[in-house]
């Protein structure tokens, strides 16, 4: 099918090696963590025969869930990287070979220019742009980016069909639009978010010609897209756009809001971390003192659980204005690191200190099972 000479070939990109290795390593570490949760409790209990170690059995369901979820993620990553859609623009036809991730099937065919009715050019949002864009070391690549997409409407066996050809932030679309223009194929523009629609909804919107603006390609899509977007909004009866607005400004505003949100979340986290984790360390030393004074038992995780539940409540409370579910695993990881470091330094304080900090470290592992309790408590208080 690809033997005929062609003008341009457009292929779906593989993930950049750095991001592929990074994602693979983190997924592998997550799998190891899940396996540790599954077998760690029984192994520790068999070795040390301490009753409180049975609490680690509570982590087995979580470990199973982590392993299943990350296995699916890895399979999806490998599948995406190995099944890349490709499109070829010929002198009198378009040849394609596409893959459907949902049902893991492929489709290939050839579309003669004589059967193409028109082409709708639009834009879509690349959500993982940084992972598929080549960049130099320390070069900032936006995580999200607006890129062009072509919807080629053609007739096959008496029925209208649509081929979606998504592009990246490069000049490849210029070659395609120029080739379509030279073959006198009508070009239309739409600022509707067609790409994220369901297949049937997208099909109906395109074939009905809803809110589509005819245009003539002028040689540079990136320059022309802004003016087309402005003209499109101005001609839509139920949509208005201030004269100074355009797609680039909308994108920049979206990125600015995203960066501002990240800064706000970071400041809230920093405020919580600088207050909670020093208290966690102080609480650990108080637990050691109480253990040495024989006020509390030095064998078990109960003191650690109480200390960590209080710390979790304060952690969520100080971030109550920006409360989100991702804070629960974040607290779990951060508190585990703090407890691990503290336990390393506590050995020099004697056997009781070592037992207490080991119990707190164990509590920091199993706290993930109940960390949702202080989270929901803070969430409920915020709504009250």
Automatic annotation (TrEMBL):
Keyword list, A-Z: Membrane, Transmembrane, Transmembrane helix
Spans through the membrane: 18-40, 52-74, 268-288, 300-318, 330-346, 358-378
Protein name as it appears in the record: DUF2207 domain-containing protein
Organism: Oceanobacillus jordanicus
């Amino acid at each position: 099918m690809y033997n005929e000479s062609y003008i341009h070939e457009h292929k779906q990109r593989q993930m950049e090696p750095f991001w592929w290795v990074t994602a693979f390593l983190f997924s592998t570490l997550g799998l190891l963590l899940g396996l540790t949760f599954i077998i760690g409790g029984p192994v520790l209990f068999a070795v040390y025969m301490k009753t409180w170690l049975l609490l680690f059995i509570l982590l087995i369901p979580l470990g199973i869930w982590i392993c299943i979820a990350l296995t699916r993620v890895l399979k999806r990553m490998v599948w995406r990287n190995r099944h890349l859609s490709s499109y070829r623009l010929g002198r009198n036809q378009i040849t394609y070979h596409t893959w459907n991730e949902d049902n893991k099937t492929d489709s290939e065919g050839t579309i003669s220019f004589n059967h193409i009715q028109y082409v709708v050019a639009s834009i879509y949002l690349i959500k993982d742009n940084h992972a598929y864009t080549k960049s130099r070391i320390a070069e900032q690549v936006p995580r999200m980016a607006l890129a062009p997409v072509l919807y080629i409407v053609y007739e096959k066996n008496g029925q209208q069909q649509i081929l979606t050809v998504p592009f990246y932030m490069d000049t490849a679309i210029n070659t395609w639009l120029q080739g379509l223009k030279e073959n006198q194929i009508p070009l239309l523009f739409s600022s509707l978010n067609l790409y994220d629609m369901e297949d049937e909804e997208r099909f109906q919107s395109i074939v009905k010609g809803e809110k589509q603006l005819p245009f003539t390609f002028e040689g540079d899509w990136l320059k022309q897209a802004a003016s087309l977007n402005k003209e499109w909004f101005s001609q839509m009866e139920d949509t208005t756009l201030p004269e100074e607005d355009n797609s680039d400004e909308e994108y920049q505003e979206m990125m600015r809001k995203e960066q501002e949100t990240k800064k706000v979340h970071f400041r809230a986290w920093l405020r919580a971390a600088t207050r909670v984790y020093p208290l966690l360390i102080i609480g650990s030393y108080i637990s050691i003192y109480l253990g040495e004074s024989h006020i509390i038992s030095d064998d078990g995780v109960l003191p650690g659980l109480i200390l960590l539940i209080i710390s979790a409540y304060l952690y969520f409370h100080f971030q109550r204005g920006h409360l989100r579910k991702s804070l629960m695993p974040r607290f779990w990881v951060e508190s585990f690191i703090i407890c691990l470091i503290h336990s390393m330094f506590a050995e020099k304080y004697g056997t009781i200190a070592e037992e207490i900090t080991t119990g707190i470290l164990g509590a920091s592992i199993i706290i993930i099972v109940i960390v949702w309790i202080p989270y929901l408590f803070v969430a409920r208080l915020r709504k009250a």
